[in-house]
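Field reference: sequence -> structure
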Amino acid sequence: MGKLSSTVIMLVSALLATGALSARSYAADLAEAAQAAAKEAAEKAAMGMFPLKPYAGAKGFVSYAPAGDFYSPGTGRTNFIDYNIGWNAAAFGGVTAGDFVKLQMDTGYISNNVSSLSGAIDGSGSVGAAYVLGGVVLSAPLSPLTKKVIPFAGISIGAAFPIVGEITGQIDNGGTLEPFTIKGNQAVVGALLARGGVTIAINAKLGATLEYGFFQTADFSLSTTDNISSSGRASTDMTAHLFGLGFEYHF
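Structure field:
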């Protein structure tokens, strides 16, 4: 009987000790969370109602461009240019304004090579654009309990600088192959980028991004040989669906 009592006492003591350790650990976690919240609140109070915190990053995308519209006087608008899969490289930076709003600038270059030209033989060339855009990105954690997965969406507008590598091909004119060329001759046009994706927090300052973007420019002017456009003038735009990865660092 004495041995049984001793065993029971030891078990109860062990359980009490384990409970005490768990309670201390839980209390320590709560204290740490409270300290972090107090620190964040103090930073916000010091910086005002909408603290501005800088961040920057870079991204790489695969660019899928649908058939490009081509407009020429007299023939109107047609789907003339088919593109290969291209690429887009971009850098960005901005400031967070509060918990959910980012004010962001983007700059980058997007390019797609010509796959074929409708009704033409041996079509080749490239269409690209550098751009500088500014806009707003909205983001928020999926749950108040975790800040590891943060969806975002935004829109930016600005300027694009078309870079048209000479587009060439041949037209079959009654059995005679006539060469033609198309060149860009406009320096700057308006552009838009709509985006959505998710940031996965690696640590308190660094995150990895998965993003889809829709990029489009206004029409920009082209010069052509007269067997493409009798006036020697035409225009097109650049539209692309972007799928990419990147990183974002908060200072």
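Note: Helices lie at 2-47.
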